[in-house]
């Protein structure tokens, strides 16, 4: 199957980017070097093209009810211009996807505080499946809501790092500096009407910018900072212990509920949603395995799929993401272990190509000042 | 353009070897660029034998793990231990400071079976 291409595919190629297939999209993985890009975001600022992320809008009289019943968080807590991290779970509570749900700021269309228009951002390549899920349930429940897959109408950029707010304020206006974390507003950048939100996936301050697909080049050009690929996006999010859909959870290969995955804060059991009853049981009964951070004490790098063992040599879990942390200069990993072994400072072993390497469970984020 | 010294011989899998009595082995400029930031190398020890076309070690960048294949058979007489603390030397200087092994060749005839610089250049273009 041919990969979908972001609007700036050729602009990035001219800049010397290397590409990789991700979620059915052909995306820049590296512009200069992962280390260079990673440090730029931690020390100054970097810009990522994340146009592979999906965009689905939900509007109409019953939009709130449809969103409430298909996501684990409480969308009624959102005023227009707010957003929240949330999960989409199946009947058994397994995470199908994680997402950010926005109640769009007023002014974009005829939405208002009583019947906001929602935008949610499924992961790359999940737009068709989520569109199906939303429309099927809408019809089954007889709700009045319009669901629109706008994935190929929006480019999405993430401008991240301690200097990102200044860059975005210069490109847009000073008022965006008043946005709190997870707040969004409509604003013009390079004469293009954009949605700017104080969100990100790096652990740094910064913004995500949605702009019309056809304006991508002029908006991208407003940000004079290090272009960054998916490689640095991965090392940055691993240092923060953030989950990656398809790696750290996956309905097929790594079925996990939000309690196992360490994101129970996204679950509001006092709301009604698909998977709620299963998650209430999971909460009451406790989970057998937990998502943890792992730090290696010996030379070697833990990668997706590597086995984790107890100090006695028993198999206790596996790694789902791992890398050499560019900030720490140490090998770090994320994965699931049996709950008895999930306490920080528990000594474990990672099996690297048949050899056991000493390691220990650590708290995430791996970076102390985050 | 990638640097491909004329006096070395090459594998299709991007390892190089010198043709000296004690041959130096490493990975090419093209290979280090493809891998990106090298963060870890796993190499045999002095005295170990390596066999042409078989794995002799592993190089890991931030994003990938790659096996290393022996361009020649022989006995390892030197290991670049600087790479254990500074694996980035493989990126910075793949043909000099980033060398990996010194090998006493078992059969010098094997050098002729490898790609010349010109043949390797064609492959990478």
UniProtKB/TrEMBL annotation, chain A:
Catalytic reaction list: N(6)-[(R)-S(8)-aminomethyldihydrolipoyl]-L-lysyl-[protein] + (6S)-5,6,7,8-tetrahydrofolate = N(6)-[(R)-dihydrolipoyl]-L-lysyl-[protein] + (6R)-5,10-methylene-5,6,7,8-tetrahydrofolate + NH4(+)
Pfam families: GCV_T, GCV_T_C
Transferase as UniProt keyword: yes
Stretches assigned to coiled coil: none
Residue span(s) of domain GCVT N-terminal: 9-270
Gene3D superfamilies in the record: Probable tRNA modification gtpase trme, domain 1 (3.30.1360.120)
Ranges where the Aminomethyltransferase C-terminal domain occurs: 290-366
Enzyme Commission identifier(s): 2.1.2.10
GO molecular function: aminomethyltransferase activity; transaminase activity
InterPro entries for the chain: GcvT (IPR006223), GcvT/YgfZ/DmdA (IPR028896), GcvT/YgfZ_C (IPR029043), GcvT_bac (IPR022903), GcvT_C (IPR013977), GCVT_N (IPR006222), TrmE/GcvT-like (IPR027266)
Class of this enzyme: transferase
Binding site for substrate: 208
Entry's Gene Ontology BP terms: glycine decarboxylation via glycine cleavage system
Matching PANTHER family: AMINOMETHYLTRANSFERASE, AMINOMETHYLTRANSFERASE, MITOCHONDRIAL
Family under the similarity heading: Belongs to the GcvT family.
Task of the protein: The glycine cleavage system catalyzes the degradation of glycine.
Protein name as catalogued: Probable aminomethyltransferase
Species whose genome carries this gene: Haloprofundus marisrubri
Gene: gcvT
TrEMBL record, chain B:
Domain of life: Archaea
Residues modified as N6-lipoyllysine: 63
Cofactor(s), by name: (R)-lipoate
InterPro entries, per database record: 2-oxoA_DH_lipoyl-BS, Biotin_lipoyl, GCV_H, GCV_H/Fam206, GCV_H_sub, Single_hybrid_motif
GO biological process, one term: glycine decarboxylation via glycine cleavage system
Record key words, sorted: Lipoyl
Keyword Membrane applies: no
Entry's Gene Ontology cellular component terms: cytoplasm; glycine cleavage complex
Free-text comment on the cofactor: Binds 1 lipoyl cofactor covalently.
Ranges where the Lipoyl-binding domain occurs: 22-104
Family in the record: Belongs to the GcvH family.
Subunit structure of this chain's protein: The glycine cleavage system is composed of four proteins: P, T, L and H.
NCBIfam families listed in its UniProt record: gcvH, PRK01202.1
Summary of the function given for this chain in its UniProt record: The glycine cleavage system catalyzes the degradation of glycine. The H protein shuttles the methylamine group of glycine from the P protein to the T protein.
Record's protein name: Probable glycine cleavage system H protein
Organism: Haloprofundus marisrubri
Record gene name: gcvH
């Amino acid at each position: 199957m041919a990969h979908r291409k972001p609007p700036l595919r050729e602009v990035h190629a001219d800049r010397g980017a290397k590409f990789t297939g991700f979620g059915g999209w052909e995306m820049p993985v590296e512009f200069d070097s992962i280390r260079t890009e990673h440090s730029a975001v931690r020390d100054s600022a970097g810009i990522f093209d994340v146009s592979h992320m999906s965009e689905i809008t939900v509007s109409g009289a019953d939009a709130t009810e449809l969103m409430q019943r298909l996501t684990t968080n409480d969308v009624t807590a959102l005023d227009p211009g707010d957003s929240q991290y949330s999960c989409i779970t199946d009947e058994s509570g397994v995470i199908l996807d994680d997402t950010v749900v926005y109640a769009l700021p007023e002014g974009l269309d005829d939405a208002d505080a009583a019947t906001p228009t929602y935008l949610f951002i499924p992961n790359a390549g999940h737009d068709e499946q989520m569109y199906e899920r939303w429309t099927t349930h809408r019809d089954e429940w007889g709700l009045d809501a319009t669901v629109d897959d706008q994935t190929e109408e929006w480019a999405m950029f993430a401008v991240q790092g301690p200097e990102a707010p200044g860059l975005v304020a210069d490109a847009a206006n000073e008022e965006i500096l008043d946005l709190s974390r997870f707040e969004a507003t409509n604003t013009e950048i390079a004469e293009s009407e954009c949605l700017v939100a104080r969100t990100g996936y790096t652990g740094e301050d910064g913004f995500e910018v949605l702009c019309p697909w056809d304006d991508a080049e002029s908006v991208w050009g407003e940000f004079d900072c290090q272009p960054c690929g998916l490689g640095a996006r991965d090392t940055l999010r691993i240092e923060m212990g953030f989950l990656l859909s398809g790696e750290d959870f996956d309905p097929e290969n790594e079925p996990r509920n939000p309690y196992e995955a360490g994101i129970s804060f996204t679950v509001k059991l006092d709301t009604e949603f698909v998977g709620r009853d299963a998650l209430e049981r999971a909460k009451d009964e406790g989970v057998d395995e937990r998502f943890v951070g792992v730090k290696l004490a010996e030379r070697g790098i833990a990668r997706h799929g590597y086995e984790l063992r107890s100090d006695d040599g028993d198999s206790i879990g596996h790694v789902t993401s791992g890398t050499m942390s560019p900030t720490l200069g140490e090998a770090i990993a994320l994965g699931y272990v049996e709950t008895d072994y999930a306490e920080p400072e528990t000594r474990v072993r990672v099996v690297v190509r048949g050899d056991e390497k000493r390691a220990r469970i650590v708290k995430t984020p791996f970076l102390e000042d985050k | 353009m990638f640097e491909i010294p004329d006096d070395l011989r090459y594998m299709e899998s991007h390892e190089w070897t010198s043709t000296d009595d004690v041959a130096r082995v490493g990975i090419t400029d093209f290979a280090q660029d493809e891998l990106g930031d090298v963060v870890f190398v796993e190499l045999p020890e002095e005295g170990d034998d390596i066999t042409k076309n078989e794995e002799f070690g592993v190089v890991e960048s931030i994003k990938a793990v790659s096996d290393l294949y022996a361009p020649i058979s022989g006995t390892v007489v030197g290991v670049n231990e600087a790479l254990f603390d500074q694996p980035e030397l493989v990126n910075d200087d793949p043909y000099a400071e980033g060398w990996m092994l010194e090998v006493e060749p078992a059969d010098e005839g094997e050098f002729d079976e490898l790609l010349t610089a010109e043949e390797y250049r064609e492959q990478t273009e």
